[in-house]
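Q: Structure tokens for this one, please.
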Amino acid sequence: MNNAAVEPANRLIQITDPHVGGRPDYQLLGLDTGRTLDEVLTAVAGSADAPELMIVTGDVSANGSEAAYRRFLHKMQPVTTPWFWLPGNHDNPQRMDEIAPRRRPEVVSLGNWRLLLLDTSVPGQICGGFSAAELARIEQLIASHSEHPLLLMMHHQPVPVGSHWIDGHMLREGREAFIELVRGADNVRAIAWGHVHQQYDSQLDHIGLHATPSTSVQFTPGSGPFAVDSEMPGYRWFELNDDGSYSTGVERVAIAEYSVDLASSGY
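A: Here is the predicted structure, written as tokens:
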């Protein structure tokens, strides 16, 4: 009997929507978002399977302030895993690049995989979008990495997740063209995003679709109007195999003093 060597999978961690404020006493809907981020990072660090890479998929800050980004960077100092970020609708991409100029590459390699870090933020808008020029660039990136399986990472959801109010703030400009583009690209194996503050897993043809819980407040799946969920903060892991297959899941973090305003009608 021949025993073939099994190549280890490449482990990726996605965290999203920390909504860190510039002051230590900042709260979102009564929740100390800095503390919950600390708890999630501690859980990742204590995991039996050490990740090789971490991606933060937007809404890093509560308001795009320099103080918020510096506070986030301070909290990330103990993280030994290489990590990168991309902006969400609460972020200021220019300020992110000024403060941490090498944290936002277009492409990141992980084993045989290539991760495309896409910016869906639109200045002054809650919803996301891709201009014609941005779509052309994405098409070019996909084609230039045709020999590699691709994971596209972004902030806004490209498909509805079933929560009416947050689906009103999804990827808007260029969405149909983006969907057509990725459906026609055999090497695009998965898309992962944040923004919706809840877990979502689905499939679009050959492409896995994955939304990840926030490290802060959670939104109620399947809600009509704005609704806050009692689920705990969390993160998503990916095991990316060099043959293009992968597995993924969500881990929630048990927080002893989790105080959030479940009756809130918005923020």
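A few notes: The chain is about 20% helix and 25% strand. Helices lie at 33-45, 66-76, 93-99, 132-144, 164-167, 175-183.
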